[in-house]
Amino acid sequence: MALSEFHKRVLSAAVLLPPVVAAVYAGPPWYTILIVLFTAAMMWEWLVMARSQVLWLVAGSAYILSAAYVLFLMWGDGAAGRSLILFLFVVTWMTDTGAYLTGRTFGGPKLAPRISPSKTISGAVGGLLAGVGAGILVWYLTGGAIDGRVAAAAVVGSIACQVGDLLESGAKRHFGVKDSGRLIPGHGGVLDRADGLLAAALAVAGTGIWR
What we know:
- With about 210 residues, the protein is mainly alpha-helical.
- It is built from seven helices and two strands; from the N terminus they run ααααββααα.
- The chain has a two-stranded antiparallel ribbon.
- The longest helix has 28 residues, at about 80-105.
């Protein structure tokens, strides 16, 4: 029996999350290796998609490399950097999962039908609530103080995650491809899985919460 999209997502998460979380907790050099490997995979997928379209190639490469560099810097040293990365990852993961489940459950008006026909406004709201709630909870559980800046970073990160997803969907529509690659079952390529994380990293960095 063929696996549903949801079951593929669950299976992929079960395989990918343990090594990612372990690398985050271990810190450099393992975290650095993780960032380098994921960045290399995303850059390769983008190069294959963009091919000879120079403006797209340059803009997308700059975007990916900038976000990857921010993710590298965010870890810093010690528990604070680890907590920040976990916060960012959880906001991203739960936004994506919450949007998917809420959208599938409630349906309703489309969010951006010309870019991504499957995304709904109900899914966007559900993803925002899930991402913000989970991010604040993880920040608290890892010893962080809850204040307006943390809440704002969670909101900004969750919204940016969804915008990043739409940006990549628009790019794939432009290039006429369904997925950025085939490495991750249920998600396509690495860029398909990390599109929201890239945008969220840049947005959360802009809030100054990591300083």
